[in-house]
Specification:
β6 (about 110-115) and β7 (about 120) form a beta hairpin. The protein has four helices and eleven strands, in the order αβββαββαββββββα. Strands 1, 4, 5, 8, 9 and 10 form a six-stranded mixed β-sheet that branches. The chain is globular, with a radius of gyration of 17 Å. It has about 200 residues and is mostly beta strands. It has a domain at about 45-70 and about 90-195: Sulfite Oxidase, Chain A, domain 2 (Alpha-Beta Complex). InterPro entries: OxRdtase_Mopterin-bd_dom, OxRdtase_Mopterin-bd_sf. Pfam families: Oxidored_molyb. This is Sulfite oxidase-like oxidoreductase.
Length: about 200
């Protein structure tokens, strides 16, 4: 982890790209709720589900064959570090959601990941060029410790919403808290409003 001097951290209040309470991080800290899963790409799939049914499913090869975006975004961790201009490659959730049928009442999504991790997000935050299934980072395949082979990438929310090792997104008419949300993290997680915990 990079060491940031007191004087350097003092610039955060005047840097327009730093949300309130954040400091700049030059590295890429690894934070996980459990051990790092190892996926077999021969059997790996990503699915969109809802009402107990699978709406769409893609193998690793099928996901790789879809149009991909190169994304450069700032990311903000709830533990108060911000990394500017992080470079990713992945498939837009718009592409995947446009390929399945969605009930108009389904306004929420719950991401499910290897290892049992979950996180919730409004469906609107997965649309409009706001979210991706990312499988590349900094010009290379996404490493397992950073969520590889594929993770959810929602850079406008705190980074715990960008769930590592994502395998499915379940659509629902109601919002259901995920792993950290049940333990006191904010249901939405806007870094510019410092929505870190319940009540923020």
């Amino acid at each position: 982890m990079a060491i940031v001097s007191r004087g350097f951290r003092g610039k955060r209040a005047t840097d327009p790209r730093l949300p309130p309470g954040q400091y700049l991080e030059g590295g890429f800290p690894v934070l996980s709720a459990g051990p790092t899963p190892r996926a077999d790409l021969a059997t790996w799939t990503f699915s969109i589900t809802g009402s107990g049914t699978t709406r769409g499913s893609w193998t690793w090869a099928e996901l790789q064959a879809l149009p991909a975006d190169d994304i450069v975004k700032d990311i903000h961790c709830v533990t108060k570090w911000t990394k500017l201009d992080s470079a990713w490659r992945g498939v837009s959730l718009d592409t995947l959601l446009d390929a399945v049928e969605i009930d108009p009442e389904e306004q929420f999504a719950l991401a499910h990941c290897d290892g049992g991790y979950t996180t919730n997000v409004p469906l609107a935050d997965l649309r409009g060029g706001k979210a991706w299934i990312a499988y590349g980072y900094d010009g290379a395949p996404l490493r397992p410790e950073h969520g590889g082979p594929a993770r959810l990438l929602i850079p406008h929310l705190y980074f715990w919403k960008s769930a590592k090792w994502v395998r499915s997104i379940d659509l629902s008419p109601s919002d259901t808290y995920g792993f950290w949300e049940k333990l006191g993290y904010h249901a939405y997680g806007d870094p510019w409003k410092e929505q870190r915990y319940w009540g923020d």
